[in-house]
Amino acid sequence: MDNPQQLVDHLFRHQYGRMVAILTKLFGFQDIEIAEDIVQDCFIKALSAWKMNGLPDKPEAWLMQAAKNRAIDIIRRKKTESKILDQISHSGPASIAVNNLFLDQEISDAQLQMIFACCHPALKSQDQIALTLNIVSGFNLTEIANALLSNKEVIKKRIQRAKAKLKSLETQLNIPVGKELKKRLPAVEKIIYLIFNEGYYSISSEELVRKELCFEALRLGRILAHHKFIQEPSTFALLGLLFFHGARMDERISANNEIILFEEQDRSNWNRDMINMGNHYMFKATDTEDFSVYHYQAAIAAEYMKVQDFESTDWKQLEIWYDRLIALDSSPVYRLNKAVVLCYLNDYDQSENILEDCLKNLPKQMHYLIF
Fold first, then answer.
1. First-residue to last-residue Cα distance in the chain
2. Residue 47 — φ and ψ, nearest 5°?
3. Which of 69, 81, 113, 130 counts the most CB atoms within 10 A of its CB?
């Protein structure tokens, strides 16, 4: 990217969460606003400097260095450097302790720790999701409202409420283990799922598929799945599902920015590498007897990937997968998709009954989610 504004917008999406996470680890969750202010200030300064002086060779490193320098300035100004650094490292010079926090692995761990902090069980589910989308992935209020089918004022209150609660609990950034991990993992997986959906089914008329959000969800999913303390089948299944859908990303939108119907997509243009990644994670996901909704959603997506053309689809097998999925989650979206499958099986009476029941309760803005 040669345009400074476009590059800053792109980096804000991909770097904001990482920078806030590592700075929050430095200052503590009680001062998360300091971390957020530093990051926003760094992006403002980056835009100004890059317009004037041209783009740096390594924009991400430029931003991290700016954030590090600004953080040290604030620590010194507050005269709390020794107190804060003591919490980070009990050995070695202070500068080494700060620099160690900005190593790639530390930044990645801090972001995952931030996700789990935002999914604290003391928070309501919708508050968890809103807070994480805001802090970890840099969603603005409008984007979060669209993703959660809400409005900006409600989202703003949810985020404020969640932050206040986590501060009152003196929340620390760490990755839970044992029963606590099991308790928080579903919320973390749901957030990654929502981030992908916001990109894949974007309601923006200008950009019907927002690839950067899809790839951000895949990045976060891989961080989660590959952490040595997690390795959960449901997370592998989620990644398999996202890779299967991601494989069709380029073929979903025409050159005129119009949706290409599924049955009209050119399957030779589906991304084989992403399909192979989906198969890889689904193989890892099957080492369990406790199948999640992501297992069955991925099985449905894989069923479409198996055949050479739409006419060869195994609709009977899809009905079986939808029955198992709906047994775990009776979402109107899943039942609507089952109704479509039943139409291809010529079971019009049952399909009509499902449609009539679902459309009474499904918001109009979600009707486009039918596969």
1. 34
2. -60, -45
3. 130
